Amino acid sequence: MKLIHNITITVLVKPDENSKLTGETILEFLPEDLDAEKIRIEETLLKAEYGDDITKFTVKLEKERHTKIVINKIKELLEKEQIKRLRDEENRIDEQGMFYLRLDRQKLEKEGKAELTDKGYCFHFKIMLACFPKNREKAIEVAKDIWTT
């Protein structure tokens, strides 16, 4: 049974930060051969009205085999109590069935470890849950299935 329609991973990088390292870290969540899998990491320059411009990395995964890779990598990197938080925190799910989580960027890039965060310095994951009927209650059930280890 399909549990996820798509996953969008987004990361914002300031000019004084290592965008190459951020790009390499995104690759950890993706299949090995991006060209063969027809996956593109979009890189967009966001013009700031004040201050420095910011680079935005975005990748959207729609195939089930790709979304499974992302979920499995998140489960591999998070400790059990963090996965339990994902399963139990229903406020991560909106009325449209979108599940949100953020992983601390510094931990991922520097230590290769994942840690949930509520701060903006992160890898942001938007996961569109597959549920019918499409409502928050069904989405909560699907999320519990995904994050049950």
Summary, kept brief:
This protein is α+β, with helices and mostly antiparallel strands and 149 residues long.
If you consult CATH, what is the topology? 50s Ribosomal Protein L5, Chain: A
The number of E-state strands comes to: 5
What Rg, in angstroms, do the CA atoms define?
A: 16 Å
Instruction: Tell me the β content.
Output: 25-35%
Largest sheet: 5 strands, antiparallel
Poorly predicted spans: none
Number of domains: 1
CATH superfamily: Ribosomal protein L5
Give, in spatial order, the strands making up the sheet with the most strands.
Answer: 2-3-1-5-4
- The top level CATH class name: Alpha Beta
Structural class: alpha+beta
Alpha carbon gap, first and last residue: 17 Å
SSE string, helices as H and strands as E: EHHEEHHEHEH
CATH architectural arrangement: 2-Layer Sandwich
The outline comes out as: globular
Provide a count of the helices: 6
Q: In percent, how helical is the residue content?
A: 25-40%
